[in-house]
């Protein structure tokens, strides 16, 4: 029994890196539709952030990938080495007439812990750091306002350490990472780490969900 417990714990502590595959084929980026906008956020393992953002009304699609670094077309293994400068990032395709950029920011700050430097739960390293990318001066101002709002709310005991970074380039992650949360609901890391983050985002954004049914998984 002890060996089983130790093995299960090792799987959990392996964190997001547990989902590695030898298939390095990157996902294809969807074309931007008329009237649609795009936003990028890094908040730890992208499995939970992708799922959480994808449940919001007005969000058409969310792609997991990498941004914030200098290496072109990185693989997941390279990013996990913490040597590329990239962070696990999601690219959100949304209708600003249905959900605003400010509301996406509220979801982002609710869907992970923006106060832990280079760490989210069992995932440690700069590839798991918190980043809000902006494309315009207006978006930068909204990010700073959201950080101020989050700090003043005292929702977190410590101040926000999220980086505010101009968007440069986004590299889609391998195909097997896309929709990973929904496709692997019984994986130990998904149940123990990703699910609570998604439920936290859902609770904060209750009035903006496509589906109000709880995601809680029962053994």
Give a written overview of the molecule:
The protein has 219 residues and is α+β, with helices and mostly antiparallel strands. It has one domain: Peptide Methionine Sulfoxide Reductase, Chain A (2-Layer Sandwich), CATH 3.30.1060. The protein has seven helices and eight strands. The strands form two sheets. A six-stranded mixed sheet has the order 7-6-1-3-2-8, covered by helices on one side. Strands 4-5 form a two-stranded antiparallel sheet. A hairpin with a 2-residue loop joins strand 4 and strand 5.
Biggest sheet: strands side by side, in what order? 7-6-1-3-2-8
Report the radius of gyration as a whole number of Å.
Answer: 17 Å
What percentage of the residues does DSSP assign to strands (E)? 15-25%
The coarse overall form would be globular
**Could you estimate the helical fraction of the residues in percent?**
25-40%
Distance between the termini: 19 Å
Q: Topology as H/E string?
A: HEHEHEHEEEHEEHH
Number of domains: 1
CATH-derived topology = Peptide Methionine Sulfoxide Reductase, Chain A
In short:
It contains 7 helices and 8 strands.
What attributes characterize this protein structure?
single chain; Peptide Methionine Sulfoxide Reductase, Chain A; six-stranded mixed beta sheet; two-stranded antiparallel sheet; 7 helices; 8 strands; disordered N terminus
């Amino acid at each position: 029994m002890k060996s089983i417990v130790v093995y299960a714990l090792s799987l959990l502590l392996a964190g997001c890196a547990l989902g590695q595959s030898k298939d390095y084929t990157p996902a294809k980026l969807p074309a931007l539709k008329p009237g649609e906008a795009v936003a990028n956020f890094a908040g730890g393992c992208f499995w939970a952030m992708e799922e959480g953002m994808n449940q919001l009304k007005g969000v058409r699609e969310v792609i997991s990938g990498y941004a914030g670094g200098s290496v072109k077309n990185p693989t997941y293994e390279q990013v996990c080495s913490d040597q590329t400068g990239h962070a696990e990032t999601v690219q959100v395709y949304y209708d600003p007439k249905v959900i605003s950029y400010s509301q996406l920011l509220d979801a982002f700050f609710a869907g992970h812990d923006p106060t832990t430097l280079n760490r989210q739960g069992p995932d440690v390293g700069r590839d798991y750091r918190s980043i809000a990318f902006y494309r315009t001066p207006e978006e930068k101002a909204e990010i700073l306002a959201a950080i101020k709002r989050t700090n003043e709310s005292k929702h977190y005991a410590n101040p926000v350490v999220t980086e505010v970074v101009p968007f440069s380039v986004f590299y889609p992650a391998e195909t097997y990472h896309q929709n990973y949360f929904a496709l692997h609901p019984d994986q130990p890391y998904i149940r123990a780490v990703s699910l609570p983050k998604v439920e936290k985002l859902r609770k904060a954004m209750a009035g903006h969900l496509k589906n109000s049914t709880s995601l809680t998984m029962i053994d």
